[in-house]
Design a protein that fits this description.
The complex is a heterodimer. Chain A is of the alpha/beta class. Chain A has two domains: 172 residues, Bordetella uptake gene, domain 1 (D-Maltodextrin-Binding Protein, domain 2, 3-Layer(aba) Sandwich), CATH 3.40.190.150; 93 residues, 3-Layer(aba) Sandwich (D-Maltodextrin-Binding Protein, domain 2). In chain A, helix 6 links the parallel strand 6 and strand 7. In chain A, helix 2 runs antiparallel to helix 11 and helix 9 crosses helix 13. By secondary structure, chain B is mainly α. Chain B has two domains: 522 residues, no CATH class; 59 residues, no CATH class. Chain B is 73% helix and 1% strand. In chain B, strands 1-2 form a two-stranded antiparallel ribbon. The chains are: A alpha/beta, B mainly alpha. The interface between A and B is large, with 59 and 61 residues.
Chain lengths: 328, 656
């Protein structure tokens, strides 16, 4: 039994020692955990594992980075954990949905956190989203899209596929119905091919590459889309609703973001941001990133994200109310 | 033909074969250890394939994915602990065989059935290549609903000797599956404000608790897995292999069930396992009853769950729609290697598709042969003292459960479900029916609402829907008729008083669930839970009345000549004491893990547990404890490295 005692003692010694060293040098990283708000294998998981392979090289102390999945509520669970209980020493950072910054506005009952407290490290993708229909549906113009009765597929009520479908429907007073409950975008695509539904909204350009011949692009969300396709929010007449649509669309600029918990010291956040910015231009990182085929890298720095978020959240309560109406 | 030769030539390269074999060994380890699923392991392996060519990458990934369902039977047969969710059905008869000293036979039967099933699934995939796309496009959303409804009708077969209890158990399982945020209205259902419950009860945890913990209690009471002192030999194993070969029509039918249902998104191994098991139990054949060590009950699910891998690749390759959860991770690998699911996979990349078929087939053969070679050593475990085994197995269950969310709720839930499982086991509420309800509930609800949103009620007229629903109803009617005929046969039944308490509690649960569903949830989110809760209340109430009548008017004690039917057997000893001991041990270990971290906790717990349960040799105790700790370290820290939360003691040290 003595052995166990000494073992325990040794364990405590190691634990306390590592704690002390952790505290002594604030911007020297030991091990970093990237927690992912989604299950293994999805887009957020894949980009996090990609970042985990590279980010450490650019941080003081060259920490080892591990990935942990904390799925739940479309990353709302992890966001709440981040604001509430995660260690604020830079040892835990998180990959959450970019839409989390306005979750407290759209869903004030569940998303009970201060979105301005999140400290953004950077984001990988800035890409418009599209509404598209299958060729066989016959819905090939904006007029038909607005006037006809047909079905648009979506996953859950909190997903981008639903939010953007609802935004287009409510914003432009379209007549289509939204079918919820599909398992993912591939599932929706298959239902389009079967002819069960006509199309979907809120999908990124990568989906267009797959079978461009079989689909019509109806319109885009967010700036930067190809000039030929009409912008959906531009057709919204009411100025408050228009501003609300802009707020929702702004998340498209900061797709796949990394955030640090609120209490992390400024020097640590700065070190993380600096490393992130260095990583996204690194040749080895870019070579690995091209292997995640459907990813068009277009990074945004943490500072820029913070500015964008602060700017968007300055809107009036009327705009927030309009936003809630738009995605209903 | 050229295509096949090209694929064989590509696969024959040493590095690719090496990757395949590496994948197989990784998959075998992942399958044996509860808590790390194939899903997580695949996500870990994918970044390692970045720098490989597609043949090697898919050899590694499919090699791993194909054999987890071969080795997950090892803990299922030996301890009654399913190594993955796909082994839960194997527990019932496999573990019963091990108790009778037939562990080697059960292993022989299960590995050979796994191998044939796996190769069958690969052939099915190969045969489907030319017709894949029209086939998948032919099935519409309502058909998926009908398939799930048909699957649920199997509950009637699994219901056992007290059908009302079987139906109630299935409803209880379905009700449990509705906990969390629903996918139609997006509201919380019975999550009591706990973020932990948003995504529902984790299925791996539920199966670990439901099947693993109750078996441990009876193991503790018996003293070792196998009652008699017969030495296991290779003869038993060969007998098992002969069983599989003799039952070849069953093997092929269940392989077909596995590969066909495997192709349906939303129907995972957890579902098709029970369907295969239910199918086999219709014709039990010679030997003991189902649930008491019938070898057909091992062969059926094992051939089905290995056949799944090939089947679930069909929609993945043809459309990029994952046929199972691990396939959605595999899709990530497609993208990394520049492959686009769809026509290309059958055209210019057809050689890769064929190589996947080969990988699955070869992996299943290598996996099964490896396991067969280990059989004699593994079967010997059946004679090891329970004093050593119980702490060991509890460690893997509890630490494995903790992997789910790294939260104290994981411990709480596994013990709670374990307690429910113990009660169900003692009082003859079939856990198989509960499981099927639990795994099918969400798919049923989701496909129903999709079908309804797409075409109102018109989908009920589609031919395949009509056929499947008709078959389901016919099956239930046929089973009901046989229940009515069999009524009044005096079987051994569990004690009346606790049974009345349990069924009254379930009635209350059903009623309160019904009321809260109707009051709190919006209509779309309420309808399925309300119907389920209503049926649960009804079946439990009827059970209560039935049991009360039995209690008032006792059947003349019929002595030893009565053979009980189904999963239930009269408990062989002071079951309550065993159950409480197991739960107490779980609680102690959970506390230790939270207090001092998983490694220290494992060592202290295994040493303390063996000592408490009455081992004499101190050296042996310490050696086993050290070995287990090393094993836990190797698996959960080196192989599947996950960050562990800081134990309380570390926090305490910090405070100073």
């Amino acid at each position: 039994m003595h052995w166990i005692f000494w073992r325990l003692l040794a364990l405590f010694a190691v634990a306390s020692l590592s704690w002390v060293t952790c505290r002594a040098q604030a911007v020297e990283f030991q091990t970093i955990t990237i927690k992912v708000g989604y299950g293994a294998g999805g887009g957020y998981d894949q980009t996090s594992r990609l970042i985990a392979r590279h980010l450490g090289r650019f941080l003081p102390g060259q920490p080892n980075i591990i990935v942990q999945n904390v799925p739940g509520g479309g990353s709302l669970k992890l966001t709440k954990m981040l604001v509430g209980s995660e260690p604020a020493d830079g040892s835990v950072i998180a990959s959450i949905s970019e839409a989390m910054f306005y979750a407290p506005i759209l869903d004030p009952e569940n998303a009970t956190f201060d979105p301005l407290a999140l400290q953004w490290i950077g984001s990988l993708v800035d890409d418009p989203a599209y509404c598209l229909t299958s060729k066989q549906s016959g819905i090939d113009t904006m007029e038909k899209f607005l006037q006809s009765d047909f079905l648009i597929g979506a996953t859950g009520k909190n997903s981008t596929t639903y939010i953007f479908a609802a935004l287009a429907k409510n914003g432009m007073k379209a007549r289509y119905k939204i079918v919820t409950g599909f398992d993912g975008t591939a599932d929706i695509e298959l239902a389009m091919q079967r002819g069960e539904i006509a199309g979907m909204c809120g999908v990124s350009s990568s989906l267009l590459r797959n079978d461009r011949a079989a689909i019509n692009i109806i319109g885009t969300f967010g700036q930067g889309g190809s000039g030929a396709t009409p912008s959906i929010s531009a057709t919204i007449a009411d100025p408050t609703a228009r501003q609300a649509a802009d707020l929702i669309e702004s998340a498209l600029h900061i797709h796949h973001p990394l955030v640090a918990p609120p209490g992390v010291p400024k020097e640590t956040v700065d070190a993380l941001r600096k490393a992130y910015s260095a990583m996204v231009v690194d040749a080895d990182f870019l070579a690995d990133a091209t292997k995640l085929g459907d990813l068009t890298l277009n990074p945004t720095s943490g500072e820029a994200i913070s500015q964008l978020v602060a700017q968007e959240l300055k809107a009036t309560p009327a705009v927030f109310a309009a936003a809630r109406e738009l995605v209903k | 033909m050229d295509l096949i030769l090209t694929a064989i030539a590509e696969m024959a390269q040493p590095f690719r074969m090496l990757m395949l074999v590496t994948g197989v060994f990784a998959g075998l380890v992942v399958g044996v250890v509860p808590g790390i699923g194939g899903l997580f392991a695949m996500a870990l392996l994918i970044p390692m394939t970045y720098n490989m060519d597609p043949y090697a990458a898919f050899a590694l990934l499919l090699g791993m994915g194909s054999v987890t369902t071969t080795s997950d039977t090892i803990p299922a047969i030996l301890f009654g602990v399913p190594g993955s969710v796909g082994a839960a059905a194997t527990v019932l008869d496999g573990h019963a065989m091990a108790k009778k000293g037939e562990a080697a036979r059960a292993f022989g039967a299960s590995y050979s059935a796994s191998m044939i099933g796996g190769v069958f699934g690969a052939l099915m995939l190969a045969a489907a290549i030319p017709v894949m796309r029209p086939l998948v496009l032919y099935l519409k959303t309502p058909d998926f609903f009908a398939i799930c409804a048909f699957g649920l009708s199997i509950v009637a077969i699994l219901a056992g000797s007290q059908p009302l209890k079987g139906l109630a158990a299935a409803m209880l399982g379905m009700l449990a599956s509705f906990i969390g945020i629903d996918s139609i209205a997006g509201v919380e259902r019975w999550s009591f404000g706990q973020i932990y419950l948003w995504d529902g009860l984790p299925i791996s945890l539920v199966f670990l608790g439901l099947f693993g913990l109750p078996e441990l209690a009876s193991l503790l009471m018996r003293g070792s897995i196998q009652g008699n002192a017969e030495r296991p030999t290779y003869a038993g194993m060969w007998q098992g292999i002969r069983d599989t070969l003799r039952e070849w029509p069953l093997v092929l039918r269940c392989s077909a069930i596995g590969s066909l249902l495997g192709a349906v998104p939303g129907i995972g191994i957890a579902v098709l396992d029970w369907i295969a098991y239910g199918h086999a139990s219709r014709r039990p054949g010679p030997g003991p009853k189902f649930g008491q060590g019938n070898v057909r009950g091992v062969i059926a699910p094992e051939s089905a769950n290995n056949a799944k891998e090939g089947g679930s690749l069909i929609p993945t390759i043809a459309f990029g729609v994952p046929g199972s959860a691990s396939m959605s991770i595999l899709l990530g690998a497609f993208v990394i290697h520049g492959l686009v699911p769809g026509p290309d996979m059958l055209g210019k990349n057809a050689a890769i598709t064929v190589s996947m078929v080969l990988s699955i087939a070869v992996a299943n053969i290598v996996g099964a042969v490896t396991c067969l070679l280990l059989t004699r050593q593994l079967a010997r475990i059946a004679q090891v003292s329970a004093a050593i085994l119980v702490p060991l197995v509890i460690t893997f269950i509890v630490v494995g459960a903790y992997q789910t969310n790294m939260s104290a709720f994981d411990f709480l839930l596994v013990m709670l479900v374990g307690a429910v499982g113990m009660a169900m086991k003692e009082l003859n509420w079939p856990r198989s029916a509960f499981s099927l309800g639990f795994v099918l509930g969400p798919s049923l609800e989701n496909y129903f609402f999709l079908a309804y949103q797409i075409s109102g009620w018109a989908w009920l007229k589609q031919p395949l829907v009509l056929i499947l629903l008709g078959l389901a109803i016919a099956g239930v009617v046929r089973q009901t008729v046989s229940w009515i005929k069999a009524r009044g046969n005096a079987d051994a039944l569990p004690p009346a008083l606790p049974d009345i308490a349990a069924s009254s509690a379930l009635t209350l649960l059903g009623v309160s669930a019904l009321v809260t569903a109707l009051l709190d949830f919006p209509f779309e989110a309420a309808i399925f839970p309300a119907i389920t809760a209503g049926l649960l209340a009804l079946f439990s109430l009827l059970t209560t009345i039935q049991t009360m009548l039995r209690w008032r008017k006792p059947v003349p004690a019929s002595g030893a000549d009565v053979t009980p039917v189904g999963e239930w057997q009269p408990s062989d000893g002071p079951a309550m004491k065993g159950n409480l001991t197991v739960l107490g041990l779980c609680l102690a270990l959970a506390f230790l893990v939270l207090l001092a971290g998983h490694l220290t906790a494992t060592f202290v717990f295994v040493a303390g547990g063996i000592w408490m349960l009455g081992s004499r040799s101190l050296n042996m105790t310490l050696a086993v404890a050290a070995g287990t700790t090393l094993c836990i370290y190797a698996v959960f820290d080196l192989l599947a490295s996950q960050p562990w939360p800081a134990p309380w003691l570390a926090g305490l040290v910090k405070a100073f």
